Amino acid sequence: MEYRKLGNTDLEVSVITHGAFAIGGNMWGGNEKQDSINSIHASLDNGVTSIDTAPFYGFGLSEEMIGEAIKGKDRSKIQLLTKFGLVWDGSNQGKGEFFFDAEENGKILPVYKLASKENIIKEVEESLKRLRTDYIDLLQLHWPDSSTPISETMEALELLIQQGKIRTAGVSNYSVEQMKEAAKTIQLASNQVSYSMLNRSIEKDLVPYSLENNTGIIVYSPMERGLLTGKYFKQAQLKADDHRNGYFAQFDLEKVKSFVETLETIAYEKNATVSQLVLRWTSLQPAISVVLAGARNAQQATENAQAMSVDLSQEEFNFINSALKGI
Question: Which residues are catalytic?
Fold first, then answer.
């Protein structure tokens, strides 16, 4: 495993970080608790020291399972990355920006973006309890909230750092303009954004900005929610309530299938999986500090961690980039 400092901070994280959205179950067709906990243990056993989650993942369930999984572990050797700013339980009392309607056990739950100082402090206390810890290594705003001034959100994060409840602060899904506005109040450690072989829009502006300002980029969906594994072109089937049924429709699936077959040839020569090849390629991109990789069980977690052992030559790297132009 390789470890990198996040932005200009002293927080060192594993390049492959355990992404804990899927183990929350909601939007992913459910989950098996023991498999989820085993996946976290396998990540830790294979050099992954960082775990990324959020209160919204499973409406608290993901954080709770992580808290259970790391019980008895050396906390100083684990980096917990979580978020705030999505409210679904009605506690916002009409405040915030409506985001979407989520479903839990047949019940519709309106989800709001809310990044006010009051809500941040409340959410942090709840996350600390679920995670069974007294500090969070990286606290991130989950989505921009247009109803709250950025300065108010950043001032609250600064306060939490001073109080020792969080070590560092970051954001998710921020534009360059929002990053610049936040920088007037606080120096952020990172910005977590969507990025993959099929979605490289951040290379136009966020990557140059991050390189210039020494800000880390944490990428989610590097596998495009499993599409780039190739398994959905074969025998694997999605459950009816899995959000990916609609998500995959945005891509030219025939072209993606052809590209994945190209990757399979390279992966075979390296005795690696396509997933490992994709994760390794992503980790080598400019300004990328962390690559989030989800896992539902120990086998997937182990495979993800071992992706950093895949050696890509410059020639192979260029070949993959050339093949991407055909998608």
Answer: 57
